[in-house]
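Please go through this protein, sequence plus structure tokens, and consider how the sequence yields the tokens. Keep your notes short.
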Amino acid sequence: MPIDLRIKDYPDRSIALLTASHALILRNSPSSPAVQISRNTSFASILDRTDDPSTASVPKCIIEFLELASLDLDGYRPLSSQPCVGTLGLITLNLDVFLCVVTNARQVASVRPGEGVFRIHAVNFHCLNRADFDDFLDSDVNSYTMDPDSWDQGRSQQPAGAEHPCLSLRKLLSGGTFYYSRDFDLTNRLQDRSVTIIPTTDYKPIWTFHSFHTTFALKSIAPILGGNSPLLDVPYIESRRPCQISIDAADFDVDSFDPSFLWNSYMIHPLLRFRSHLSTQERTELDASHILTCTIRGFVESLTIPRSLTSTGSRSPGLATTLTLVSRLSCKRAGTRFNSRGMDDDGHVANFVETETVIWDPCHDSQNNSLGFSYSQIRGSIPIFWEQQTGLLPNQQKIQITRSREATQPAFDKHFESISLKYGAIHVVNLLSQTKNGEAELSSRLKHHIQHSPLTTLGSDEKRDELGDSSLLEVTEYDFHAETKGPSGYAAASMISRIIKPSADAFGFFLMQSSSHGSNHGASRRGQKETEFAVLQQEGVFRTNCLDCLDRTNLVQGILSKMAIESFLEQTGKNFGHEFWIRHSTLWADNGDALSKIYAGTGALKSSFTRTGKMSLAGAFADARKSAARIYINNFVDKEKQNTIDVLLGRLVGQHSVYLYDPVNDFVTAELRKRAPEYSHEKDIHIYVGTFNLNGQTSGINDDLSQWLCPPFLENSQLHPELVVVGFQEIVQLSPQQIMSTDPARRQLWEQAVLKALNSHSRATDGEEYVLLRGGQLVGAALLIYVKASAIGEVRNVEGSLKKTGMSGVAGNKGAVAIRMEYANTRLCFVTAHLAAGFSNYEERNRDYRTIAHGLRFQRGRTIDDHDAVIWLGDFNYRIGLPDEKVRKLVELGDLQTLYDSDQLNLQMISGLAFPYFAEARLTFDPTYKYDIGTDRYDTSEKARIPAWCDRVLRRGKNLRQLSYGAAPLRFSDHRPVYATFQCVVSVVDEAAKEKLSKEIYTRRRAEVGHVTGPGKEESGDEDHLLDFEPIQPGLPPPSSNGRKWWLNNGMPARSTVKPPGPDYAQNPQRPANPFVTATGSDWIHKSDLPALADFRPPPPPPPQWKQAQTSPHTTGSPTPPVLTPGPTKSAPRQLPPPFNSADLPPLPARSNTSNISKPPPPTPPPTTSPSTMNPFTRTPSETSPPHSAKLAKPLPPTVPRKPAVLSRDAQKVAAPDMQVSGSERQAHGLPQPPPKRLSALPVTERPALPPRGGSLEVGKGKGDGLMDDDEGGDIDWVPLRPA
């Protein structure tokens, strides 16, 4: 049923998804909400309280789930003309929140009656926080038909000059590779859907199949797997008797979905989190509405098998058998062909696909019992750490193994143990070539790790003797190309069935039966529990791989699927005709094409043979065309496609999910931060860093490197660091042939030499041995990282990257190699660099640094700056800016400080032109360049290069503390090796303990506050009362927020509405306006107690200025100072003044501002009618003197003119208006007597008078006395100021 999509723009932009009975409302949250919200509402978080600055800009959203009858739809309008059939979730791009909805989907499969599968053909993104993108993507992504083997970028359909930020995401999701179901859990195979095993003695299965070989292996592996495998508890495995396995076919639970195959997990995570906080009934109603859509990526299709293709006797009309193929692509290490290879530290491999073949016969026998068959197999990249670079020529696509055997084994074991827990025994079918160098090396490493896996070496010799040749993990080497070279071609691949038949018989398949009667098989199966049971479970799985796990793998998996179906038909007495096998081959060919387009960009090679069973010339030409298309797509398209996949899965650095705030959850977050020591701790590790420019020499490989790698004077902790980082420069001679390519042979020799020196020292000092974690090389620069064997489990997400800077980024003679990792929960990055040479090329070296720092990228957009600690090491080539003779003399004298003051790197760092925010320890060793090889003499050749500290180690990070910095006396190069040791503080977080503590706090807090009710219309929308605010320091008030201000009484809300206690009450006018003054009266009084308002007369307004200018006798004199009366403020209510009669108040006397107040006032000149006095903006004394209140206020001083007219003694001759008040007048008006005049005993000297504060001093000029008067000095006589 389609979902009605509506939008409302006011007061906050909201999107409503309406079904027949319920509605899901999503509302933009620019600030804290202040609207009526139901108890099923999630509020936007106030993230300013958090300590993480990166979360301050996380988009916020409010969501609520309501019954449709309780929703007011006024103001809502249709959002789009396109239908909506599901919701994939929310995603943020450039701080905009987008809702992704499915607009077009078609049913392509029916696994069982009532279990439909839909393929997504179109999606749309609607912006939640602004209307700029409304109807932007209403047109189709591309309405034209495209080549099925091409990856259409769809840019032709964009509006000119504009691009929707979700265009690439929409194209990816609309590509026909995503599927969903409303009826069942599509992420799990049929065998894993809520299976309950019930032993039985009276049930007779259709057939029984047991394998002592696999059964004993499963029992023996129990101690290794921890007894958690459901296969270990199957009763018939131990008793070898039948059992009944009932299948719970009730409503599926979203929480049971397999996250490995849930491709929209990042987008739908906020909605699922909101769902988890609902009650059980509300959660059921939300699931029944089908608003939330969970998708997989891969291939799903069903074909109907007519009754004529089977020979099973009489059948009910209209109930045909269905053949379904379901391929689920894992999203854990998703990506494109050359951007996603090998394995990660969690054991997830690239291009991991689970393919399930399902046959459902709704009328198996005369009683209309249904019979279901399921057979699963998997494929995936070789589970070791390897990479492959793109190239336009096949020989350029070299395979590089990035970790040693010892460092690979832990992740390898994780991979296969996770498969064993889910599928049981594993049989690896390796189709790689045994003659090609890269593939042969991968096969050798795979065989080595399988031999050392705990699934094959089961503890003691006694246990191994009992097992014999049995194992949960075995491998078959099958060189596909070598086996199919003969005249039979690809048909010879079917011979593999003879090799793997024993394991195929041992693994079996999943078989289930339904005893339901009647003809309602086409009805929905939801709710049926008692009628279905499993007869047999699949006990093992085939894991097939080639290099890409596409073409060869798909062909062989089709053969394995056919073997399983034939076994099923043999046991059940069925017989499918030739037409059935043609349809089976067609399904597998379509499956191969679909998976190949996802990973490589084109359809699968050899698909024509898979489809028809024959090789043809047309098929060969098609394969050649696909191979050429792959080269173009892998080199020029896949990077953008990989970035889109990373955005969809939320893996880019700095990408934040939409935040749906729950007040209780915010309390949990704050509480977890306080109780961090309960689930996390910090510990110190030691890191050794060494750099050495080898000058292309190999003579020192067999020398004793311990004096450089293990200096004897270091402390024991520094001698046995957890990490050893070694950087080499000029590991090969930088010839014109070498600078364009990388030869790893020389690097591998030095890897073994360094490892030999480290382990020899460890054995001599009873320390732990080291293993090579990863190595990287760029022509002559190489970076090697070793780790203690005991610490290998704490290192994760190791990645490498290169950056060329030679010849403007074309050549690799100069550049950098970087390796990043996560040690526990701390991000570390190491960079070795070889910068531009030359004494005066320091600016070019600065450019090289900037190119590396800003251009070097790891996966998912990580940069060097995105780490907690960064260490740069290498030959930076910065020189000392002093003459050669002086430098050598200072070195002899040991005056290293003078040399360091002229060091180019030091000067560039001080000026901020290179390595900003990095630090270097004090240099206590002589310059390391350039020596005569084999001696301690500096360069004596004709060039006589100036000695310099070219080899350096720099650090950045608050958790780093440098312990030592020195050079070693190795003389087989013209450089001296440099080393440094560091102490690094790393954070270790126990995620399981953190999750457990989080659940406990949430459960307890939810029980305390119950369901949070949203704020009312007249209440604050903030939920601060649920949060625990504490002062950051004793004695300080708690922090404030939008709804809580510490400077108010007892944390009262800042926003409030003042209402009288009744209709007959009013504010008390006698209460002081200052809220900080303690008041004795009440805030409200009865209106009858208010003073009589009849006698109140407002003061008359002042006369117009032009009248005052004509009638005032003191227009040109000093204005009467105004009286300051307290007026109403914004924070306090306006108060009524007491009744008074303004006529009874005498006018305030004037006050003189001259130095001699005893002089009589001069005569007042007559008023003038100059333009200045007629200026309506000129303030007159009467305008500046409002009516007096009952209580006299201190008068304001007179207005100071903008510029004084006279600055000389002549100004003393100009008298100011007298502002004296006689004693009789003071008594008449009740004014206090002035204090006695203070007389100075010093002789009176003539001083220049201060200019008067108001009015013009030269009345004859006709100037006005206002601030707006134009007195820029056109007619003012200026007199020089003379000293007294």
